[in-house]
Amino acid sequence: MIDTKHIGHRFPAFSAEVERGRLKFFAKAIGQSDPVYTDEAAAKAAGHPGLPVPPTFLFCLEMEAPNPAAARDLLNLPVPKVLHGEQRFSYHAMCYAGDTLTFEPRITDIYSKKGGLLEFVARETRVTNQHGVHVADLNAITVVRHG
């Protein structure tokens, strides 16, 4: 069983810069056809100060943590039994190319279902920009299968 003493555990905050080239590449990779995500002139014509961050891109930046597997390591989760259960994004403000975003991850819950055959680890990552503006919350649930 995963020890629930880890509920509330905060991992070290880290920062990542939103690079223009990566935004363009990501937008093309996900099939984003709106030119505001790939053409700076189109973004400015639409009222943006620069290229906006496409939906779900913050997950890519979250993987730039010093140890992207920190939760798995802390909880000693068996990799062959780990499943990605859920991913949610709550946006509060826009992010743009050139922003420096700070990620503050923490474990929000640990619980089990089906008599302990399934265990769940809920994580939330608060994201702020270089001005201290709360721009997003990233929520993920990891599932561990037993039996």
Structure description:
By secondary structure, this protein is of the alpha+beta class. It has one domain: Hotdog Thioesterase (Thiol Ester Dehydrase, Chain A). It is built from 4 helices and 5 strands, in the order βααααββββ. It has a 5-stranded antiparallel sheet. It is elongated.
Q: Please, how many helices?
A: 4
Uncertain stretches of 5 or more adjacent residues = none
Total strands: 5
Which sequence of SSEs, written as H and E, runs from N to C? EHHHHEEEE
Query: Mean pLDDT, nearest integer?
Result: 96
CATH superfamily label: Hotdog Thioesterase
End-to-end Cα distance: 12 Å
Proportion of helical residues: 10-25%
CATH architecture: Roll
What are its keywords?
147 residues, alpha+beta, Thiol Ester Dehydrase, Chain A, 5-stranded antiparallel β-sheet
Question: What order do the helices and strands come in, and which of them pair?
Answer:
Layout: E1 14-17, H1 20-29, H2 40-45, H3 57-62, H4 70-75, E2 82-91, E3 100-113, E4 118-128, E5 134-145
Antiparallel strand pairs: 1-3, 2-5, 3-4, 4-5
Question: How is this structure best summarized?
Answer:
This protein is an alpha+beta fold and 147 residues long.
